[in-house]
Design a protein that fits this description.
The protein has 17 helices and 17 strands. The chain has 506 residues and is of the alpha/beta class. It folds into two domains: 151 residues, HUPs (Rossmann fold, 3-Layer(aba) Sandwich); 248 residues, 3-Layer(aba) Sandwich (UDP-N-acetylmuramoyl-L-alanine:D-glutamate ligase), CATH 3.40.1190. Strand 8, helix 10 and strand 9 form a beta-alpha-beta unit. It starts with 6 loop residues before the first helix and ends with a helix.
Length: 506
């Protein structure tokens, strides 16, 4: 009989075993690389009872960095099932064992001794699992066998990362310990951060193809369901809120205030929004039509008015800036080119900010007339390679030379240029020095918002005046997490972010 069993059937088996006075022990983990530490742990766990059950984390919930898990769930279950001490193996349905414990109701839940101190658990999952064990009247036990890190072994002996990724992480490990980096990230919480820019609602319409129209030369789609996310500057505020205790947001919405409740409801509680209603304009909605099977974008539409703010609206905007900007340690400004930030307001914000990080984006609605030339004396600018070449009207010159020219022209202290799969670079004008980082995205589900996520973390890191190489690395990790998310349906989570760093740098 196969030891590998579906969770539903396992529930019934365990219930029957417990009725027959059998003591059921549960172990849970990723088990990405089955090693001697795992084997000793499971052997010891089996001695605590009559039946040993092991559940493993599904592939989609393994968040240990790029190219993880190294082995898929089927292979990981087969490896565990091959051990004599294991009676049953099942694939978990959730990111942690919390719900699994409540469903299976084991007599004993067993972890390794490195999980005794729950304060070291960056995700807080262990504390929740312990609570779940108590709720089903079970006991928590710990083994004291020597432990090994799967991440450490995979990083050291298996080629799961690219050469470029290894070069980047090795540079970071030579300069900083993981403790130093975590302390650095935790220090962001003290920053009073002001986010400025357009509010954008990302609407994703998921469809399935029907085929060619019988009357027109067009492809028809079956409209299945719709989802709406906070995009643009709203997404930036959400990213920052995970790392800072207090965030203020100044943003534009439509004249009628549509989406105001939706925005306020979906912003984290530590984000304080200030809305500027734009006359004769709707709240910006960018619609994408998505193939529901492979998640490819089919086409998109914009609901938008690109006119600049009226004098009345800009006066209110200016008043908010006067009121808020000096109370904040840094400003993150993202200009999507939809008429919210005039040259006059750009100059004012740059002048008054203690530290300002800016992103001036090209998109379908503004390409050809939206540039960064209204921004000068920036502490930090993030721009992609296409935007850089467009700004300087240069298709062929190397990136380093163009970046230097841009910094000199607009008096920018640090410029970050993102290059997709090629990674990113940062240039420090004062030191005349470049740093580079590999791209860390395991898979790209959706590129929307990657630059916003990257800028959010980099701005906080650079404000701390830490090493630019470290800031670029942290920004690259944030960007990598962002492209794994559909649209802006979620944001960069601090716990997941720290966990990824921990596994990458082992």
């Amino acid at each position: 009989m196969s030891k590998i069993i579906k969770l539903d059937k396992l529930v019934k088996k365990i219930s029957l075993l417990k009725k027959n006075k059998k003591t059921v022990v549960l172990c849970h983990g990723v088990f990405d690389l089955l090693h001697i530490g795992h084997i000793k742990h499971l052997q010891k766990a089996k001695r605590l009872g009559d039946i040993l059950v092991v559940t493993i984390t599904p592939d989609e919930y393994v968040k240990k960095g790029p190219n993880r898990p190294a082995f898929n769930s089927d292979l990981r279950m087969q490896g565990i099932a091959s051990l004599k001490c294991v009676d049953f193996v099942s694939l978990n349905r959730w990111p942690s064992a919390e719900k699994t414990i409540k469903v299976l109701k084991p007599n004993i839940y067993c972890k390794g001794e490195d999980y005794i101190d729950t304060k070291k658990d960056l995700t807080n999952k262990i504390a929740k699992e312990i609570k779940a064990v108590k709720s089903v009247k079970g006991k928590i036990r710990y083994t004291t066998e020597p432990t090994y890190s799967s991440s450490n072994l995979l990083n050291k002996f298996f080629d799961i990362h690219t050469n470029e990724q290894n070069k980047t992480t090795n540079k970071i490990k030579k300069l900083f310990s993981i403790k130093d980096i975590i302390n650095h990230i935790n220090s962001f919480s003290k920053f009073r951060t002001l986010v400025i820019g357009e509010a954008i609602i990302d609407e994703y319409n998921f469809c399935s193809p029907l085929g060619k129209s019988g009357k027109d030369p067009i492809i028809m789609l079956h409209d299945l369901y719709q989802e709406q996310y906070l995009g643009g500057t709203l997404a930036i505020a959400r990213h920052v809120s995970e790392f800072c205790e207090k965030v203020s947001l100044v943003t534009s919405i439509g004249e009628k205030g549509e989406y105001k409740k939706f925005i306020s409801k979906n912003l984290p509680k530590n984000v304080k929004p200030y809305f500027v209603k734009k006359s004769n304009s709707p709240t910006i909605v960018k619609k994408k039509y998505i193939d529901s099977i492979n998640k490819n974008k089919v086409f998109g539409t914009y609901k938008i008015n690109d006119d600049m703010l009226s004098k009345k609206d800009e006066k209110k905007f200016s008043s908010l800036v006067n009121k808020l900007i000096k109370k904040h340690d840094l400003v993150i400004l993202s200009d999507y080119g939809h008429g919210f930030i005039s040259e006059r307001m750009a100059k004012k914000i740059c002048t008054l900010s203690k530290f300002i990080a800016t992103n001036v984006q090209l998109n379908a609605a503004n390409i050809g007339h939206h540039t960064i030339n209204k921004y000068k004396n920036l502490d930090c600018l993030i721009i992609n390679e296409t935007e850089l070449r467009h700004e300087l009207r240069n298709k062929t010159e190397n990136i380093e030379n163009l970046t230097k020219k841009l910094c000199k022209k607009f008096k920018i202290k640090r410029t970050i240029v993102t290059r997709g799969s090629k990674g990113a670079i940062i240039y420090e004008e004062k030191k005349n020095k470049f740093y580079d980082s590999a791209a860390f995205a395991e898979k790209s589900l959706d590129k929307i918002g990657a630059g916003d996520a990257m800028m959010s973390i980099m701005a906080l890191s650079l404000k701390q005046e830490k090493n630019s190489m470290l800031s670029l690395f942290l920004g690259s990790i944030a960007g990598a997490q962002s492209v794994e998310i559909m649209g802006n349906s979620d944001f960069v989570r601090k716990n997941k972010f720290l966990k990824t760093l921990e596994h990458l740098l082992k």
